[in-house]
Q: What sequence folds into this?
DNA sequence: TTTATTTTTGTAATCGATTACATTATTGAT
DNA sequence: ATCAATAATGTAATCGATTACAAAAATAAA
């Protein structure tokens, strides 16, 4: 009962075995109802016996779709994204899509590489988690483009649906928390300057200060890039400031930076939160288990991933359907051990 | 200069535009040397002008390959894997392969889902990072199977090439370190019992103890599952032990568990390393920045990923070629702040 | 110049599943 | 029992690129 030539069994082989036409086999697989029970059983049995599996390339070619969605993220190694990915995967696999994952920063993606990935013959749609892809990469595409949504990050001004939290509000919550604890000298460790998230978080930070009649001198605004390492550098910067004029609290635009910061301060004998209060952003898994546990803004990463995936699949299935309703993702300030009331000492 | 019907431009359209046959266009793309410079330029120009991109499904169908490799990992959310992934991606993209990533535990993969993924018409090969896939899933396949290698984990007894460190040696290094610090009462927080890594690490742990004439009562062998949460539970277990008969040092089979452990102990007033020394395993990025910084066994995750990808691609290109030479991955004990010499107090 | 060799190009079959359309079988209504 | 309507199945064209084979063009050798 082998397929001839030592090759894989084809739909032809199954058809012959079950004494039906290839069309019937195809229908038995794709539209079971359109086939009588008797033949369906025969087909299924032939499939089982032959070990037939569908040839995806052939199906994709004929159907003009791939059942694959691309997830483009800035940094695979950053644990922040893995939860979002998990949300995407949950939905995608439930809906019968595979996901293709690519890292847009490493190796840095150029137009050619992008064009090769973001191609309707490879993918049905894409979820883009990187707001720094040049808009021109998308515009350059001819013909039918894959469906697309943004998640977490987005390109400002783009019309494409984007699923993300309100970063300004989040930053305000974090800063308000520090103010409420009695801090008046509050600094900020920012993300990379060309990043939308960084910008919104700086904005929220400043809005909160303004609301409370506080200001922030330039050297309390520390430039980082979301990595642990840049948190370490931020600590160096803080240590270099005049002891009397240092902030007594810092809002970090990411948990990772907060960890680097706290660790480096600790090496230098500075205690968090006694000497300095720190709030992070994201509530990565580890935040609850660091020492001290990190106060931070929780964002529902997994739900963001799920929402983005749902919206994308919706768009893939019917490009002209009205988009799914926007949803708001709730933020939550989680107060843990890294923040404490201001004390004069 | 549009393709007709509002559809994507096809190779036909390019051919017409460049006044050559489709065969020539195809050759200009796949074997530039087999085409005269003049026609090549004409073709390239036509491609540029039409915005043509190749239809991958058609190419895959005809060529009988997909240019895609699957990476099957147990848990996307675990930061351990992201570095390995990065290594895989570096090589894969350099060699012109895309990677398809799937999570084997969530949602738990069943035979049908596995068969759907691990299918020669979808992928050219797979890198499997999960040693708990039932062997039967692989055996059940008919016909030509995708190429495959294991990385990090593997199925004991399988003939398939596997790229991983010597876990027994690593566990011995970790345990030796504790012994060298003067500890005599040493416990172990193990990984999930059905996991090859756990088993080898337990073995190495016990071998080291034996070498030094030490033993380990059963209630110093704590069952975990590699997660932070199970580290927290291990701490509870340790705390529940009779104060006089507790281990003074613990070897954790993963850094994640060590973090959970240290954090929970800290909550209960136990200081690491003063009251208890702890070594982890893996040297995840955060290990250098936790408080205290974690002593651990460094494994070159990225290089493992690269080696696995290289070997797989080698196999894909020529299934019968002799396999690439095995390589040893060096381990390193990184001694940081979580371990200290035994003191009687 | 003529012939042999090599390079370049074209024609048309092919990969394997899907589906429009045509045909046959079945069911139900009268 | 007859006809209409519906269900089930089959035939063959099709998706778009690749490539075996054949033909034509260019180059080298005589």
A:
């Amino acid at each position: 009962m082998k397929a001839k030539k030592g090759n894989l069994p084809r739909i032809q082989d199954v058809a012959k075995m079950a004494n039906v036409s290839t069309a019937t086999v195809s229908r038995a697989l794709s539209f079971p109802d359109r086939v009588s029970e008797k033949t369906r059983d025969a087909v299924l049995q032939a499939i089982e016996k032959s070990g037939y599996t569908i040839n995806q390339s052939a199906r994709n070619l004929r159907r003009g779709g791939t059942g694959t969605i691309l997830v483009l993220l800035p940094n695979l190694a950053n644990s922040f994204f893995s939860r979002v990915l998990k949300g995407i995967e949950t939905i995608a696999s439930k809906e019968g899509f595979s996901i293709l994952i690519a890292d847009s920063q490493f190796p840095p993606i150029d137009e050619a590489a992008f064009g090769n990935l973001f191609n309707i013959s490879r993918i049905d749609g894409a979820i883009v988690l990187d707001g720094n892809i040049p808009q021109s990469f998308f515009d350059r595409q001819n013909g039918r483009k894959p469906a697309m949504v943004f998640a977490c990050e987005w390109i400002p001004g783009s019309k494409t649906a984007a699923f993300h939290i309100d970063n300004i509000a989040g930053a305000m919550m974090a800063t308000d928390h520090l103010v409420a604890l009695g801090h008046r000298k509050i600094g900020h460790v920012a993300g990379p300057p060309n990043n939308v998230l960084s910008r919104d978080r700086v904005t929220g930070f400043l809005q909160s200060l303004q609301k409370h009649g506080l200001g922030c001198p330039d050297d309390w605004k520390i430039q980082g890039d979301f990595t642990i390492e840049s948190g370490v550098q931020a600590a160096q910067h803080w240590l270099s400031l005049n002891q009397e004029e240092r902030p007594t609290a810092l809002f970090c635009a990411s948990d990772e930076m907060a960890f680097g910061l706290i660790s480096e301060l600790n090496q230098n004998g500075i205690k968090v939160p006694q000497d300095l209060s720190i709030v992070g952003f994201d509530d990565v898994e580890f935040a609850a288990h660091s020492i001290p546990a990190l106060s931070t803004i929780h964002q529902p990463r997994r739900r963001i991933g799920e929402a983005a995936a749902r919206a994308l699949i919706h768009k893939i299935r019917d490009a002209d359907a009205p988009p799914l309703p926007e949803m708001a993702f709730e933020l939550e300030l989680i107060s843990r051990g890294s923040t404490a009331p201001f004390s004069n000492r």
Notes: Residues 65-165+302-329 of chain B form a domain with the Rossmann fold fold (CATH 3.40.50.2300). Residues 20-24, 27, 34-36, 39, 58, 60-64, 121 of chain B lie near DNA strand C (CB under 10 Å from a C1'). The radius of gyration of chain B is 26 Å. Chain B has twelve helices and eleven strands.
